[in-house]
Amino acid sequence: MSSDPLVAFNRIGVLTGGGDCPGLNAVIRAVVRQQLRGYGGSVFGFHDGWRGVVENEGEELDVERLRGTLPRGGTIIGTSRMTPYMVDNGPERVRATMQERELDALVVIGGEGTLACASRIHDEGIAKVVGVPKTIDNDIPGTERTFGFDTAVSIATDAIDRLHTTAESHDRIMVVEVMGRHVGHIATWAGLAGGATVTLIPEEPFDIEQVCDRLKRRHSLGKFASIVVVAEGALPVPGTIDIAPPEIDRYGHQRLGGIGSIVASEIEGRTGYETRVTVLGHVQRGGTPTAFDRVLCSRFGVAAADAIHEGLFGHMVALNSNEITTVPLADIVGELHFVPEDMWRTASVFFA
User: Which fold is adopted by the domain 153-285?
Assistant: First the structure.
């Protein structure tokens, strides 16, 4: 350990947990740059999220290791949905790894599940942690934006733009299913940006008859192509469409997907209009992050390293009013950031 009194936290760890997301490498890169060049310390990257901490697997990270990763999607250190509380003696194994690696603190980059685990690890005194909010769904409260969201919206909007031309060529209705397990931020933003006719989100249960009436009205005016954007977690008004309950995976998450096909089938059957479905799926998670996300990730990464040296443990870095702030992890656990009413009202003006 360094004897330099100016370096209070000389050696820190970093992990990426949960689903992959554009911008993860940009955050890691910023953490490494600030910790090494700003504070003269070092960084150890754990492989495959919390699994690497539990099993004490990872690698030393430096500026050279992160060179060229700013525009690269995915995560160079891997990720998983496993948490220490899923394995025998997991929390104590985390404590042992932190001690063996001589780590003073840990930067945890992840979504709601990963950050909830980080909050618990902090509360139980197992490790000093600082969180970074990551999810394309933009569903983490306490921050106006999570990184990866802007990229996902851009990908979805580009797909909608492309589907407009094929829909117009064949007088079709195109249903586009986008990600959004519990919230409809991607669907709302992409639907608005892409000129969708109808957008369906988890926050607002839909009546399929009303959807079909909107489409009939539009087509009666001579508009022979329509785009319907559906968030994967969108649900019909109870009693209007029979939908089988989703399967639950080994991590306790619902296996969503398929609502787009159900909506498309219902529309074609009720209106007689030829209807096709496109499921964007994991395409939204992959590839190069947008310029906005690269900058946001860089700001988050630097702020996470700074938060450690300021002793803001048990906090998450956040973006509010375009300023980087921190919020207690305890305040965001178990909560969701839903589409704001004013945003939905604005978007609804453009949905037929």
Answer: Rossmann fold (3.40.50)
CATH number of 11-147+289-331, picked from 3.10.150.10, 1.50.10.10, 3.40.50.620, 3.40.50.450: 3.40.50.450
Alpha helices in 84-146 (DSSP H): 90-100, 112-123
- What does the domain layout of the chain look like in residue ranges? 11-147+289-331, 153-285
Is 137 one of the annotated active-site residues of the chain? yes
DSSP E strands in 111-180: the ranges are 129-133, 173-178
Q: Tens of pLDDT along 280-294?
A: 999 999 899 999 999
Separation between Cα atoms, residue 214 and residue 349, nearest integer Å: 13
- For residue 3, pLDDT beyond 70: no
Instruction: Kindly write down the DSSP assignment for every residue of 212-248, as one continuous string.
Output: HHHHHHHHHTT---EEEEEETT--BPTTSS--PPPEE
pTM of the model: 0.92
pLDDT over 50 at 108, yes or no: yes
> Which of the residues 48, 104, 137, 150 is marked catalytic?
137
